[in-house]
Each structure stands twice: as C-alpha cells, then as structure tokens.
Amino acid sequence: MKIAIDGPAGAGKSTVAQRVAKRLGMLYVDTGAMYRAATLTALTRGCSIEDEQCLRDLLDTIDLTLEIHDGMQRVYVDGEDVTEAIRSLEVTRRVSTVAAHPLVREKLVDMQRRIASRKNVVMDGRDIGTSVLPDAELKVFLTASIEERARRRLQELEQKGVKAEYGELLRDIEERDRKDSEREIAPLKQAKDAVLVDTTGCSIDEVVDRIVCLHREKI
Ligand code: C5P
Which of this chain's residues are annotated to bind ATP (predicted)? Predict the structure, then answer.
C-alpha cells in the first residue's frame, strides 16, 4: 500500500503524513528532507547550488539516510544528524534551486522508489503522485490558503524561539511554490487522480481523520 501526499509549501504535509503513517502502521517518508539534506551538504561542502554535476557527484559520495525514531523521521548525512539543520532559513531559500536539477532528482527519486518498493509508505512531497509513485493506491493533494500557510509557519518558528516576519514568510512561500511549479522536471502539480484536501480552517486531527477515511475506502 502506498499513500502519496503532495502539495505546496507549508500546507502541513509532514505533520499530517507522519500522523497518518502512525495510525495506519506504515512508514513515513519526507522526501523534502532529502532535497534539503542535499542543499545543506552543498552549502557546507562548497558546492554551488547552480552546479548540477557537482551536486550529483556529491550525492553519489555521501551517505544519506532516513530513520524513524518515536514515529519522527530523522535525517543523517555521513552519520551526522542534520534533522534540525535542514530546516534553516538559508536551506529553505535555496532548496528549490537544487531540486530543479534533473541529475539531483534522478538520484533522490531512485532512493525514494527503492524505499517504497520494500515497505508500505506514506510519502510526502511535490511529485509523489505524479512521478515518483504514479501507482500509489491513494493520492492526496493537500493545500491551504497562502495566508494560513504563512501564519502556520510563523507560529512554528515562534514556538522554536526563532524571530520571523509574516510578510517575509508569505513572500518566501510564494516564491518557493512558483519555482517548484514552474520547473521543467516533475513540477508541483495535483495528479489527475488525487483527492484535493483544503486544510484552511481545519485542525490537524480533522485532516488526518479524512485521509484515514479515504484510505479505508480504498481497501
Ligand atoms: O516539503 P519541503 O518544504 O521540506 O520541501 C522542500 C523543497 O524540496 C521543496 O520546496 C521542493 O523544492 C523540493 N521538493 C521537491 N520534490 C519533492 C519534495 C520536495 O522538489 N518530492
């Protein structure tokens, strides 16, 4: 069984996907974390985010692993836990450039498909339903108004004690969605057979219940 959850930035995909996976006893895979880890590694090891071949060579040499601890995904690069570091503002602002390179996507999509071939997964990202797992039994396109997504991001950062400005977050989200939707390869797009779930004004529990219900209808 494979569940694909795609959608724009800040729609709550990871929180929702993680909880759905826990409820259904499936493995949660956050593919955005893989693109983020590639971006962080490029930044720390001096590889230009515009240099596709350098990025691919880097990905071919590093050991990128995802592990689940207490239901939460942790990300490691060559054994170093980078789970928090990949959420930085700098990585967030650059990740869409890295993710637009075909050689980067080829490598990471291959890893994603290999994981999904061994386990029942709930995988979240931008192109899971359209490209990574086109045969997923359930596809959900999760969205929310841009204002709500920026508000949620602000709250999340404030809870971590990070200062941020609403208008700036809104612009960053808009820009990232634009880049992700306009890229040539596997752009952010709702799959034809995906169910659109608008989470504006909904609680996390409501959204999780809805997806678990959709899953029940499929089995
Ligand atoms: O999901 P998250 O916001 O962490 O994703 C970070 C970035 O990684 C996205 O803005 C997008 O550029 C890229 N991404 C992608 N394909 C995916 C998942 C993420 O291109 N399946």
Answer: 7-15
List pocket residues of ligand 1, CB cut-off 6 Å: 9, 31-32, 35-36, 95-96, 99, 125-128, 176, 180
The verdict on residue 49 lying in a domain is: yes
How would residue 54 be classed by pLDDT, with cut points 50, 70 and 90? very high
Instruction: Identify the burial level of 9 via C-beta atoms within 10 angstroms of its C-beta, where 0-12 means exposed, 13-18 middle and 19 or more buried.
Output: buried
How far, in Å, is the centroid of ligand 1 from the Cα of 90?
Answer: 14
Q: Which residues pair with 197 in a beta bridge?
A: 142
Residue 9 lies in a domain: yes
Q: Which atom of ligand 1 is nearest to the CA of 179?
A: 12
* pLDDT of 70: 80
Q: Which atom of ligand 1 is nearest to the CA of 33?
A: 4
ipTM of the complex: 0.99
CA nearest ligand 1 atom 10, residue: 96
pLDDT surpasses 80 at 7: yes
Instruction: Tell me what pLDDT residue 63 has.
Output: 97
Whether 188 is in a domain gets the answer: yes
Q: Retrieve residue 149's tokens.
A: 């997504």
Q: Is 63 helix (H, G, I), strand (E, B) or coil?
A: coil
Average per-residue pLDDT for the chain: 96
Among candidate residues 208, 82, 66, the one with its CA nearest the CA of residue 142 = 208
Asked whether residue 12 is marked as a ligand-binding residue, the answer is yes
pLDDT at 160: 85
Q: Give ∠ CA 16-164-200 in degrees, rounded to 5.
A: 35
pTM of the model: 0.97
